[in-house]
Write a structure and sequence with these properties.
The structure is a single chain. The chain is of the alpha+beta class. The chain has one domain: SH3 type barrels, CATH 2.30.30.100. Helices cover about 15% and strands about 45% of the residues. It is built from one helix and five strands, in the order H-E-E-E-E-E. A five-stranded antiparallel β-sheet has the order 4-3-2-1-5.
């Protein structure tokens, strides 16, 4: 997914506010609590899986779609 500046800003705001984000990656859907955006070695969203407490890293170029659940 190629993020426009507006979509990138939405994702950054979700991470700053620890909001829930529903995203799809390679056909699988995840609902995570956005924690932060990292840039090393490539830009990625770090999200917390509420059911397990596990942090997952989602490289931005691998995200097919996303939606901020609780705005």
């Amino acid at each position: 997914m190629r993020l426009s500046p507006a979509l990138y800003n939405e994702l950054e705001a979700a991470a700053a506010g620890h909001r829930r984000v529903a995203l799809t990656r390679r056909g699988s859907e995840f609902v995570v609590i956005a924690r932060r955006i990292i840039t090393t070695p490539r830009e990625a969203l770090v999200g917390l899986l509420p059911m397990t407490g596990e942090e997952m890293v989602f490289p931005l170029e691998e995200i097919d779609t996303f939606n901020i659940v609780d705005r």
